[in-house]
Amino acid sequence: MRRTGIVAGIGSAVPARTVTNHQLAERMDTSDQWIRSRTGIAERRVIEPGTSTSDLAVEAGLRALRSAGTDRVDAVVLATATPDHQVPATAPAVAARLDLPGVPAYDVSAVCTGFLYGLSSGLGLIAQEAADTVLVIGADAFTTIIDPTDRNTAPIFGDGAGAVVLRAGAPDEPGAVAAMELGSDGRLAELIIVPAGGSRQRSSGVPAAPGDHFMLMQGREVFKHAVVRMTDSARSVLARAGWPLDSVDLLVGHQANARILHSVAEQLGLPPERAFLNLDRYGNTAAGSIPLALHEAAATGVLKPGDRVLTAAFGAGTTWGAACLTWPDVSAG
Ligand code: COA
């Protein structure tokens, strides 16, 4: 039988500091009512000065390892668009802090679809027999690349991380990914972009303008593409897995906007209550979003062993993807 990766543990981590919509409204022209009604977000978590993505990644990783009942894995994949440094990648530092020096460790950059790309990479390592166990972490500190006074972006993003441990197993075991799809369209790169800091701007000889290190987003366009791509990918993985729509117990989509997730559920024909939401408390945590939501759904009993879970994401790039799996009997703390 084909060898694949099975979800064997899950964990997450968020910073302690909370910033409410009311606090944001003190520094920009917005309101709690506007943010809640347009996004579903009430508050988000923000890292403390001097801390970074790797701190969240290590904490989420440790919890996932504990959940899997192990302290060893053969590889670490870190999905992030907010690495600690441009060079080197953040994953080796995370692996070292998890007392895993020597294992292959690398970053995957697909922004809000990052966790699904990282998961796919981890599954590939197992399928190729390059690893028997892989820690896949999604972690981002988007508040470090957001203008704290920009009402287009600051209300939406927060910091957070989640992680899963994959172990080698068989495709018919609970926890095996039944189907996965990934996609990208770089023609839409300008929809969400940090203009400065990369080789394009650095080689131009033109110093970055103030604010160019912050993220720009065309929110309305992103919204439209997100609904279409997440819905199409979700349909496609269900078809490939041979799962009828009404067999899906929970949609754990990328937590970008409650209206996006409800639109995806509606387009698919799923009742809105099957779309899991925790963005009210965390906002959009980018690569952290899906594993953070899966962990919370499992820890609170909303997602139970044996449930069929569908996940889908859309992000800068643009990138998108979906995956479906039967939830395994793992300890979610
Ligand atoms: N507070 C108050 N008013 C705001 C506001 C804010 N934070 N942001 C925008 N507005 C105003 C706009 O200026 C506009 O005013 P106008 O009608 O007078 O011109 C009005 O609200 C509507 O703006 P619009 O941009 O059309 O709002 P929207 O309903 O599309 O919501 C987003 C904006 C950003 C919440 C929404 O487009 C979105 O969530 N997009 C997807 C973002 C996303 O998911 N990004 C990550 C992808 S991984």
In total, the number of strands is: 13
In CATH, the homologous superfamily of the largest domain goes by the name Thiolase/Chalcone synthase
What string gives the helices and strands in order? EEHHEHEHEHEEEEHEHEHHHEE
Uncertain ranges? none
Look at the structure and give the mean pLDDT: 97
What gyration radius follows from the Cα positions, in whole Å? 19 Å
CATH fold title of the largest domain: Peroxisomal Thiolase, Chain A, domain 1
Give the helix level as a range of percent.
Answer: 25-40%
Strand residue content: 15-25%
Oligomer: single chain
Named at the architecture level, the CATH assignment of the largest domain is: 3-Layer(aba) Sandwich
Helix/sheet category: alpha/beta
Give the overall form: globular
Query: Given the structure, what is the number of helices?
Result: 10
The largest sheet, given as strand count, sense and whether it forms a barrel, is:
5 strands, mixed
What is the CATH class designation of the largest domain?
Answer: Alpha Beta
Number of domains: 2
**Which molecules are bound besides the chains?**
coenzyme A
Looking across the biggest beta sheet, what order are the strands in? 1-7-6-4-5
First-to-last CA distance: 32 Å
